[in-house]
Each structure stands twice: as structure tokens, then as C-alpha cells.
Amino acid sequence: ETGVTQTPRHLVMGMTNKKSLKCEQHLGHNAMYWYKQSAKKPLELMFVYSLEERVENNSVPSRFSPECPNSSHLFLHLHTLQPEDSALYLCASSPSTGGARAFFGQGTRLTVV
Amino acid sequence: DQQVKQNSPSLSVQEGRISILNCDYTNSMFDYFLWYKKYPAEGPTFLISISSIKDKNEDGRFTVFLNKSAKHLSLHIVPSQPGDSAVYFCAAISNAGGTSYGKLTFGQGTILTVHP
Q: In the predicted model, what is the mean pLDDT of residues B71-88?
């Protein structure tokens, strides 16, 4: 238990569906992240929120839309995804100081059919 | 261009022996390095880290070595135990940007299997 909780753990969605991934942390951290892990590839940073403002968007397609309503919650809204978007999506949080280690959630295993 | 590389996809070790996992990086701005461990169906969990001002950091059975001139770090586990079987990720970060958050760059991971 790292203090970062993701729901759902597994998600199967069609290419025309709209779904959302949820992440919650009560560690008092000010930064939250979305990472993507595809098979045999490194974890790829998608988005970074610091103090509830998006500070990084690593060339992620617009079919992925993040939302950070407060410092404890982070969402990833999904729409019109492609099969190649199937991956493990990991949320993480960290204190506001750079270099601090990130705490990861268990991830959401997403399958797009 | 992959800035952090773990060139060994897998490693198999006998219980009680030493496990050595390697990681290379190309970005000379990286000044803090971390190792994460990941079990199936779980998120990565922090294992050990090292700052670029050091060349060694030890925590129980785990030791990380940093060779800045070679841009290489390694994780030593001794003695290895079956419960150490997992995927190990190397990660790096640059604090030089002065940002208020941590932006980690990860390697591909190495699958460690420790046989009883």
C-alpha cells in the first residue's frame, strides 16, 4: 500500500466509448502524474500536475484528457481510443520538491477493443 | 532517443547469490537516480536512490553504485532471495531545472528471477 489508489484496476472499452480513470492520494503531495507502460517499453510520462496546474504534456494525443480538481485527485478521461492505446496506466504523486521519489498506484490495465 | 537504458531484459540468479542489475544513461544533466521494483498487478515501489554527489548507497541487502564518468549505475542484491523476483526499473531525474516537481525518466526494466 503506497497511499495512491487507482480505479478501476481493469478496464475494457470499445473505440467509441468514453471512460475515465481515477487516482486518489492522501499523502499531502503537491505533484501528481500519469504514466503509461506499454509492453517491453519504459514507463512514459504523459502528464504532470503541480499544485493543481498542468505543467507537462508530453505530446499526448487529445483523446487523453487529464483533470486535477484538487491536490488529492487526478483523472484521465478517455475517448475514441485506439487498440494501440492498450497499456497499463499508472498514477503517481510526489512532494513538491524536485528529486523526491514518486509513489505509484497499482495501475489500471486498459484494453481497447 | 532513450535516455535511460537497461540492456538486459532478464536476469536469472540462484538463491543466496548476488544479483547485479545494470543501467546506463546518456543525459549528463541527470543528478539523482532511483531504483524501483514492480511485482505483477502492482505499481512500482521505491527501492533505493543515489545522488550524483555519491558513488555508493547501501540499504540492507541492496547497494547502488554510480559511475558518473561512465554514466552507469548498478544495483546489487546480496544475498538474493526468491521474494526479490520482480521487474526492476532504473529511473533518473535532473534537479537543475529548479522545478517544483519530480519528472522521472525510466529504463525499460529488467525481470529478475531468483531460483530457490
A: 97
Q: Enumerate long-range contacts of A48-54, CB under 8 Å, 24 or more apart.
A: A48/B101, A48/B103, A49/A74, A50/A96, A50/B99, A50/B100, A50/B101, A51/A96, A51/B100
Q: Given an 8 Å threshold on Cβ–Cβ distance, is B100 in contact with A31?
A: yes
| Other Cβ atoms closer than 10 A to B27 | 14
Inter-chain touch A45–B105, beta carbons under 8 Å: yes
Compare CB distances from B103 to A48, A96, A104 and report the shortest one's residue: A48
Kindly report, residue by residue over A3-57, the tens digit of the pLDDT: 999 999 999 999 988 999 999 998 998 899 999 999 878 899 999 998 888 887 7
